[in-house]
Design goal:
With about 80 residues, this protein is α+β, with helices and mostly antiparallel strands. It has one domain: Ubiquitin-like (UB roll), CATH 3.10.20.90. The chain has one helix and four strands. A four-stranded mixed beta sheet has the order 2-1-4-3. A hairpin with a 4-residue loop joins strand 1 and strand 2.
Length: about 80
């Protein structure tokens, strides 16, 4: 898993937590869109909008959709929230 990082993703709308690997060469916009599709397929309770944003759970930082994971401060063990 050289080109992926392990994150913990909190989804407050459905009160779930997921641990997953995400690729570091994709933009945050692409990753958030893919995560929304994945969450919507796993949970039919409350659909997540496809334009959701990623936030750092600890610092509250909002991630720019146009930078890659490699360019951000997202590393193994990062805790993210999707809104």
């Amino acid at each position: 898993m050289l080109y992926k990082v392990l994150i913990k993703l909190y989804v407050p709308e459905i009160d779930e937590i997921y641990e997953m690997f995400i690729p570091i060469n994709k933009t945050i916009g692409d990753i958030s869109f893919s995560l929304c599709k994945l969450i919507n397929s796993l949970s039919k309770e409350y659909p997540i909008k496809n334009n959701a944003r990623l936030f750092n759970r600890i610092t509250g930082e909002v991630y720019d959709r146009n930078i890659t994971i490699r360019e951000s401060n997202i590393r193994n063990g990062s805790q993210l929230i999707i809104f």
